[in-house]
UniProtKB/TrEMBL annotation:
Highest taxon of the lineage: Bacteria
Keywords: ATP-binding, Nucleotide-binding, Transport
Molecular function GO terms recorded: ATP binding; ATP hydrolysis activity
Domain ABC transporter, residue spans: 5-230
Name used for this protein in its record: ABC transporter ATP-binding protein
Organism whose genome encodes this protein: Actinomadura rubrisoli
Organism taxonomic ancestry: Bacteria, Bacillati, Actinomycetota, Actinomycetes, Streptosporangiales
Amino acid sequence: MTAVLQTQGLGKKYGRRWALRNCTLDVPAGRVVGLVGPNGAGKTTLLNLAVGQLQPTSGGITVLGGRPASGPEQLAGVGFVAQSTPTYAGLSIAEHLRLGARLNPGWDGAVARDRIGRLGLDPAQRAGKLSGGQRAQLALTLGIAKRPRLLILDEPVAALDPLARSEFLQVLMEAAAEHRLSVVLSSHLVADLERICDHLIVLVDSRVQVAGGVDELLATHHRLTGPRLHPVRLPAGRHVLSERYTDRQTTLIVRADTPVFDPAWTVGPVGLEDLVLTYMARPTDTGRQSALEVQR
C-alpha cells in the first residue's frame, strides 16, 4: 500500500524536552486516517513536522514521497487546517478566496465558491464576524479548494458545538469522496473518528500503539467475559490487551486474527472507543510490539 506520509525514528526536541521521539509510522494513501492519543503524545508536533512548519531534531519524514515543504510542488500537494482554524479577521470571505487563488497554483475557484454557497455564507462577511463553526468551514474550504493530494487537520472541531462539528465533518466526508483526498484527522473525539475515518492510528508517548483499517481492527478485537481466572490462559494466537476482575468475573480485551470459539468465555464485540482507550492505557514499551504485530 502506497504511503502519503512516512516517518522513521522521528523526533523533535525543544531544549531538553522531547515533544516527539522515535516515532515510526506509515499513513496509507487514499484513506481517511484518524490520529488519536492523549495530550502530550506528540500529535500536533507530528503534523507540524509533516507540513514543514517544524524541522526534525532526529529521524526522517517524507510526505508525498519528498521532504515536507521542500518546493512548490510539495507545498501545493498538502493542505493544512490547524487547530485554531486560522483565518484573517479583517478580510471578507471573498477576499480569503482571492488570496487563496493568488497563493495556490492549483486553486479551484469554482469549488471554493460552490462550497461557500452551499454553506449559506455571505462572501462579503468578514471572518472576524463569523461563528466558530463558520470560520472552521471557511478554513476547510480553503484547504479543499487548494486541491491537495493530502489534507491534514489538527483537531479542527475541538472547540465547536455538536451541530457545527457535525456539519464540518459532513463537508469533510463529501470532499474526501468527491476529490479522492488522502486525509489525516487528529482528534480526541473518538465518536467523530468512528463516523468519518476508515483507518486508525493510536499514538501514545510518540509511539504507535496500534494502526490499521478500522473494520479490520474491530473484527480482530474481542471482549471476553467469564468466571474469575487468574492467571488467564488462552490458546495460541490470542493476545490479551487488558484484564479486569471482580469477585466472580474476568473481563478481557483480546486481539485474535481468527474467530474466538471457547465455551469458557462469552465473546462480544469491542467498540472503537473501547479499543482506543485500551491501547492508550497500555505501557508504551509493549505497545511498540503490539503495533508491529497488528500491522503484519
